[in-house]
């Protein structure tokens, strides 16, 4: 198998579309070709990113607890397992261990379920509280302020977004924002799980201050974005975000 | 050690996992648990079975971190690849027919941290934008392979196309995606 044949098979392998009976010549080729091994890693990265074309859902809190309890508890490879004594002692000890393990598991499941209920209640209360705050914010006739957090450690910019949903109008103000790289501009996005909408591009002044207003009538009516973000995009703006994220602000708090 | 698990790099977290620090696994789960879960759930269309897949993947990383280290790739790539393969294995066990059906959506709770939601929403937009560059037939072939777990022969069978056509579509699609999604120099 030459490199050209191998690469076609490697793309299929990375996507999980290579039947098992066709895998072995590819594996043989990979074992002796560093270039194609690198190519496969690239294909795997591309395939894995397809997995990100999925709206992100919050897993239930019990999943986190279950995984961490299993990692901390007995029975995982990292924790040295106790060796039991031989003979009768072994049988007795094993029985006792099994029994206490059984009760421990039962007890932990009960704890887990109680914790789940408590989590659900506190999530629900938090959701109600957040929604109340949001309702108040949206019924206020005046402006709401959204602080925007810089996303790269070296960025000292201080950005805020003010907006009025009633007037469908908003503006960004800030200081210490560096000029964008040549050929690029900053672009402001409204984001929800359904997607993103660019509302306009802007540049800071020479001293790094920002003041730019945006007409929000480009946003669909009744669309409830949950966050805003500033990204670096090609001059003239981009229909979808493609560049580095500069700052993010949340609209729900 | 004074590692801040929420700020540490993936490499630092994995080094701590190798040294058996459970909080490092916690840090990795907090960073990637939701995306891994979301992918498993999309493929399987079932919340409980998606949870099992996520648990398998993270405990495998904890039990045998050397498997990841040996792969020499990025952590997120490894986690998503493992989750995708596990989920497809389950789908296969379920029977071939069902793989042609769309996954039921079910009740969904969006990721709660809005900054995190924004980060993944941007990532998603970039991938969707790349997929939008593909002709529909190439995109379909790639999606049937990745999300439905069909081999090229099964795609040919399902779509009634010659095998060579399916292979060509996938090759062209991957070439384009590689150019759009890989950082320069890695393509």
Notes on the protein architecture:
The complex is a heterodimer of chains A (about 250) and B (about 190). Chain A has five helices and eight strands. Chain A is an alpha+beta fold. Chain A has an eight-stranded antiparallel beta sheet, with no helix packed on it. In chain A, strand 2 and strand 3 form a beta hairpin. The longest helix of chain A is centred in the middle third of the chain and has 53 residues. About 5% of the residues of chain A have low confidence. In chain B, about 70% of the residues lie in helices and about 0% in strands. Chain B is globular and about 60 Å long.
- Listing every helix as H and every strand as E from the N terminus to the C terminus, the arrangement of chain B reads HHHHHHHHH
Strand % of chain A is 15-25%
DSSP helix fraction of chain B: over 70%
Strand content of chain B: under 5%
Largest beta-sheet details of chain A? 8 strands, antiparallel
The helix/strand class of chain B is mainly alpha
Q: Which stretches of chain B of 5+ consecutive residues score pLDDT under 50?
A: 96-108
Arithmetic mean pLDDT of chain B: 85
Number of helices of chain A: 5
Specify the biggest β-sheet of chain B.
none
Mean pLDDT of chain A: 78
Radius of gyration of chain A: 27 Å
Q: What overall form of chain A do the CA principal axes indicate?
A: flat
SSE string of chain A, helix = H, strand = E? HHHHHEEEEEEEE
């Amino acid at each position: 198998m030459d490199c050209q044949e191998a690469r076609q098979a490697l793309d299929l392998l990375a996507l999980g579309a290579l039947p098992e009976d066709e895998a072995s010549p590819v594996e043989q080729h990979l074992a002796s070709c560093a270039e194609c091994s690198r190519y496969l890693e690239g294909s795997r990265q591309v395939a894995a990113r397809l997995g990100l074309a999925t709206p992100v859902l919050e897993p239930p809190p019990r999943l986190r607890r279950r995984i961490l309890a299993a990692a901390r508890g007995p029975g995982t490879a990292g924790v040295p397992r106790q060796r039991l004594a031989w003979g009768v002692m072994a049988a007795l000890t094993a029985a006792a261990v099994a029994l206490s393990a059984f009760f421990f598991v039962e007890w932990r499941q009960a704890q887990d379920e109680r914790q789940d209920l408590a989590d659900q209640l506190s999530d629900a209360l938090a959701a109600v509280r957040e929604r109340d705050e949001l309702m108040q914010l949206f019924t206020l006739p005046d402006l709401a302020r959204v602080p925007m957090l810089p996303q790269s450690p070296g960025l000292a910019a201080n950005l805020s977004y003010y907006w009025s949903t009633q007037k469908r109008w908003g503006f960004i103000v800030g200081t210490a924002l560096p000029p964008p790289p040549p050929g690029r501009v900053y672009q402001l996005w409204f984001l929800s799980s359904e997607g993103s909408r660019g509302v306009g591009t802007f540049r800071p002044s020479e001293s790094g201050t920002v003041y730019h207003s945006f007409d929000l009538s480009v946003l669909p009516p009744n669309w409830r974005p949950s966050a805003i973000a500033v990204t670096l995009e090609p001059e003239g703006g981009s229909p979808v975000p493609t560049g580095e994220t500069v700052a993010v602000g949340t609209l729900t708090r | 050690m004074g590692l801040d698990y929420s700020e540490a790099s993936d490499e630092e977290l994995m080094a701590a996992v190798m040294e058996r620090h459970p909080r490092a696994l916690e840090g990795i789960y907090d960073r990637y648990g939701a995306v891994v879960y979301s992918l498993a759930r999309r493929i399987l269309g079932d919340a409980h079975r998606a949870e099992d897949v996520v648990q398998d993947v993270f405990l495998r990383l904890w039990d045998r971190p050397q498997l990841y280290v040996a792969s020499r790739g990025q952590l997120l790539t490894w986690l998503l690849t493992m989750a995708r393969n596990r989920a497809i294995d389950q789908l296969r066990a379920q029977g071939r027919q069902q793989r042609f059906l769309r996954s039921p959506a079910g009740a969904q709770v969006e990721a709660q941290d809005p900054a995190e939601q924004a980060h993944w929403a941007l990532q998603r937009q970039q991938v969707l934008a790349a997929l939008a560059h593909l002709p529909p037939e190439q995109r379909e072939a790639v999606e049937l392979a990745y999300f439905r777990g069909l081999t090229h022969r099964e795609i040919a069978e399902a779509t009634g196309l010659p095998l060579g056509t399916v292979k060509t579509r996938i090759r062209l699609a991957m070439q384009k995606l590689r150019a759009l999604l890989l950082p320069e120099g890695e393509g």
